[in-house]
Write a structure and sequence with these properties.
With 207 residues, the chain is mainly alpha-helical. 52% of the residues lie in helices and 0% in strands. It has helices spanning 3-28, 32-36, 43-53, 61-67, 72-76, 82-98, 115-127, 150-153, 166-169, 184-198. The longest helix has 26 residues, at 3-28. It is globular and about 70 Å long.
Length: 207
């Protein structure tokens, strides 16, 4: 066998192995317990909240999603497109490699690409709102045109540019008793930032 042919066979075999591993991991990560094997602290706490929420005790937004049947990866892989799934798998592989070298007593694996969970928000609540619990034919409360909903609909306007994202107001793992887990101390600064960036609206809303 020539060197060139041998290299081709090796590359082809490596590709098949990598593809098989990616497919296996993609299926395995549907289970929160699989993710928790590498995500140690505080992510195991989040998994515990999700498990409790399935019994009716949601204490944060992520746990409320878990109660609705959405796993951790359901938000962390973005809009489920092939590029974003590939990015999520790559991040997962990198986290798995570096986990043994990170002290166990510090928070692990911060969200380095917030556009992934952000894309997940859009996928379920805007592009396919039935995934977000909206009945077929019913108005989508996220995109409903009304002044009291401008903080959602303005984010959809192409002529208004703001750095504020869904995840800036709706923190997935922040415990709260507030409706929709929207904590005033988090939401108000985001409102003020948006008002500054678009050039209208109050910029001193808090105490």
């Amino acid at each position: 066998m020539s060197i060139g042919r041998g290299a081709s066979v090796f590359v082809g075999a490596a590709f098949v192995v990598a593809l098989g591993a990616a497919l296996w991991v993609s299926r395995a990560e549907e289970e929160d317990s699989f993710c928790a094997r590498c995500h140690l602290r505080p992510e195991r706490t989040y998994v515990g909240r999700a498990t409790a929420a399935r019994a009716g005790r949601a204490v944060d937004l992520a746990a409320a999603h878990a109660a609705a049947g959405i796993s951790c990866v359901g938000c962390h892989r973005g809009d489920q497109s092939l590029p974003q799934r590939g990015l999520a798998l790559t991040l997962g592989a990198w986290n798995a490699v570096r986990t043994p070298f990170i002290p166990a007593d510090i928070p692990q694996h911060p969200v380095r690409w917030p556009h992934l969970p952000e894309a997940g928000c859009w996928f379920c609540h805007i592009r396919e709102p039935q995934r977000g619990g909206v009945e077929p034919g019913a108005p989508n409360p996220v995109t409903l045109e009304a002044f009291e909903n401008h903080f959602h609909t303005d984010l959809l306007r192409a002529d208004l540019r703001t750095s504020v994202r869904c995840v800036d107001c709706h923190r997935a793992h922040q415990e709260s008793l507030e409706p929709f887990f929207a904590i005033r101390e988090i939401v108000i600064p985001a409102c003020e930032r948006c008002h500054r960036e678009v050039g209208r609206g109050p910029i001193r809303m808090g105490p």
